Amino acid sequence: MAARNGPDSFGWVSRGIHWLMALGLIGALAFGSYLARIEPSFDTLWMYGAHKSVGITLLVLVLIRLAWHRFSPPPVAISAGIPGWQVRAAAWSHRLLYLLMVLVPLSGWVGSSGTGIPTVIFGQITLPAIAPATEFWDTAGFTAHSVLTKALFALILLHLAGALSHVVLHRDATLRRIVRGR
Ligand code: HEM
Question: What distance in angstroms lies between residue 32's CA and the mean position of ligand 1's atoms?
Fold first, then answer.
């Protein structure tokens, strides 16, 4: 089982990070939406800590993923029989997904810094604040977090629809190679 990506295959590193992040992102989107609807209290404090810990882990994972792609580029998208505009739209949606996977946790971290409450990861590592503890940064960070998470959710739905179209319409190896490698 190859770790590195090939010209038409995904190695286990890229596949592992892809599915780990898929699971983590869907979980963080659902759990974050729940957190935004409850009142923060002493009893629910651990939930915020858990969300922050998973969110920062996802930030680290996307940075590892981007670095790994420099070292081991992913295979070229399968485009036989697919209109050029769809291939270009898919490439841009992937770039946008990466941008949001970086900006979403960063905005959460900015908002959390704005509250003045320390961001402690898995109860072990206290991260530095990346914005001043003021009402402005609290509001600006969480407003951005709220808008960007909605954009990320919409793009994940589009990504899923694209993956399904490869299975149902084009019947090619796109989904298979991110599951099994080739
Ligand atoms: C990819 C990672 C992340 C995802 C997908 C995510 C997702 C979400 C979502 C969907 C919400 C609800 C937004 C709303 O509707 O207003 C939320 C809220 C929240 N997020 Fe994140 N988040 C991530 C990372 C982070 C990080 C790294 C932090 C802090 C270090 C953080 C802190 C918070 C807090 C404190 C809330 C609750 C805000 C409130 O009470 O209104 N998030 N998150």
Answer: 5
Tell me the two tokens of residue 30.
Answer: 């659902």
**Going from the N-terminus, what domains does the chain have, and what CATH number goes with each?**
12-180 (1.20.950)
pTM over 0.90: yes
The CA-CA-CA angle for residues 73, 155, 130, to 5°, reads 80
Q: How far is the centre of ligand 1, averaged over its atoms, from the C-alpha of 170 (Å)?
A: 36
CA 77 – ligand 1 centroid, Å: 31
Cα gap 97→129, rounded to integer Å: 25
What separation in angstroms does the CA of 132 have from each of 89, 111, 141? 38, 10, 11
What is the pLDDT, as a whole number, of residue 82? 93
Residues sharing a CB contact under 8 Å with residue 84, sequence separation 6 or more, in sequence order? none
75, 7 contact by CB (below 8 A): yes
Q: Can you give the pLDDT at residue 168?
A: 96
Low-confidence ranges of the chain (pLDDT < 50): none
Ligand 1 binding residues, C-beta < 6 A: 25, 28-29, 32-33, 35-36, 48, 51-52, 55-56, 58, 104-105, 108-109, 112, 119, 142, 145-146, 149
- State how far the Cα of 153 lies from the Cα of 124, in Å rounded to an integer: 30
